[in-house]
Amino acid sequence: MNATLGDASAVAAPGKIFLIGEYAVLEGGVAVLASINRYAVARYVPGSVSQSPLVTEAMRAAVAALGARASALPRGAVQVDTSTFSNGGMKLGLGSSAATAVASVAALMETVGVSVDANRHLAFSAAEAAHSAAQGGRGSGADVAAAVYGGIIGFVRPPGRSPEIVQLSPLAQLRTVVFWTGQSESTVAMIRSVVSLAQRSPHAYIAVIERLKALADQFRQAYAIGRVGEVIDAARDYGATLAELGAAASTPIVTSRFRLAAEIGAALGGAAKPSGAGGGDIGIAFFAEQGAVDEFCSRLAVLGGVTVLNIDVNTTGVTRLQLAPPRPGHGR
Fold first, then answer.
1. Per-position pLDDT tens, the chain of length 332
2. Which domains does the chain have, with CATH numbers?
3. Distance (Å, rounded) from C-alpha 112 to C-alpha 208?
């Protein structure tokens, strides 16, 4: 973890990967996500200015949620380091914006003496509102939940209701590989293309989304009871259905490299699919045997342009860092 911004009120919020549920979660379907070991590290710095509209929105939401408790804050802003979300200067689709929103809210909370660990619901509510506003109202909030609560979560947001978030136990027999295909895509742009499909061809859109929702629910149920083969089957079918959604929406949710990874994974008895919005960014593969994992990684290396990432599950969610006080001065 890169904690170069630290002081006694520094916080770290983890990124995420989608195991299943991309796009379906936007229509009330279930998603399963893992909180991961990439972090937005933040602290409140008196006298500084906001780095981005997202940080500004998060500070505004936090101040509103904290009410009178925020009145003693000196003029300043939250400063955030998200360097672990990049590879060679290119942003990875591992939830940096959600982690930034969560870390910004949590840094304000800790600065005024409100423990984020004891008030995770408040942190989620404020950060999700800020993140949604920054995305123009699009997004499910699932990535924000992963950053707040940590571990592996099942997430569903029934229409018109608050989200339901359930902690899931890791499935020890399931082996995963997270990889990057060398491109960086805008989640908002990808979602916009899918929304356009829903508007011009609602029946085609609903038909694909309903299949995605059913597959995501199959995955979640199989994951919860430890049926690894069924988890892999659901993930394989989900990836194929994402390709159909992308074709219908005229947007490359499943790129040529994702297709090759899916073919390799299937040939080895596993499954590989985009993790997140797609478009050539992050992928995830599932296997039951370590030998298949090793062979999959070897074959990806031969493809070129695909990088296997060192990703572990974060179990704590957003947390306060106990670090030495900063030297005189401010900012980074």
1. 444 443 447 999 999 999 999 999 999 999 999 999 999 999 999 999 998 999 999 999 999 999 999 988 889 999 999 999 988 778 888 999 999 999 999 999 999 999 999 999 999 999 999 999 887 767 789 999 999 999 999 999 988 888 999 999 999 999 999 999 887 666 777 788 898 999 999 999 999 999 999 999 999 999 999 999 999 999 999 999 999 999 999 888 998 889 999 999 999 999 999 998 887 789 999 999 999 999 999 999 888 788 999 999 999 999 999 655 444 444 43
2. 11-169+314-320 (3.30.230.10), 175-308 (3.30.70.890)
3. 47
Please give the model's pTM, rounded to 2 decimal places.
0.90
Tokens of 29: 């379907």
Conformational region of residue 257, where left means phi above 0, alpha means psi within -120 to 50, and beta covers everything else: alpha
